[in-house]
Write a structure and sequence with these properties.
2 helices; 135 residues; rod-shaped; mainly alpha
Length: 135
């Protein structure tokens, strides 16, 4: 069973205790992300004059926007991965097919060589017979 962790983090200048099954480093990373978003929004003209509820809504909207963009990017990566997996499968299949063709070509070459050797032997026999007949 996973152990529940807690960590104190600073978000927007306030100390907050976060709890969950993630590591303290993860909690600090989340807090840093939120602080970064707050900092970005604070640099927008007129943001500081907004009501706290409006600020929270804007923060939530920005975080949600980042989430959906990251989710879309993950879907694109997943599609790319599936496509590459399919391409790899196709290449492996083609490689196996080519190996089989090479093996068949080697067998055909070996059979042709055996036939050639057999015919060479017959040619020599016929040449000997011809030589004997011409003597």
């Amino acid at each position: 069973m996973a152990v529940k962790n807690t960590a104190q983090v600073v978000i927007d200048g306030k100390i907050i205790t976060l709890g969950g099954y993630e590591s303290e480093e993860y909690f600090q990373k989340v807090a840093a992300y939120i602080n970064n978003k707050i900092s970005e929004l604070s640099q927008m003209p007129g943001y500081s004059r907004q009501a706290m509820e409006t600020k929270h809504t804007l923060l939530s909207l920005n975080i949600t926007d980042d989430y959906f963009k990251a989710k879309k990017q993950a879907e694109i990566f997943e599609q790319d991965l599936q496509q590459k997996d399919q391409e790899m499968y196709d290449l492996k299949h083609e490689l196996i097919s080519l190996k089989m063709q090479i093996e068949e070509a080697k067998k055909a070459e070996q059979e042709a060589q055996e036939q050639k050797n057999l015919l060479d032997g017959k040619v020599k026999e016929l040449e000997k017979e011809l030589d004997e007949l011409l003597k």
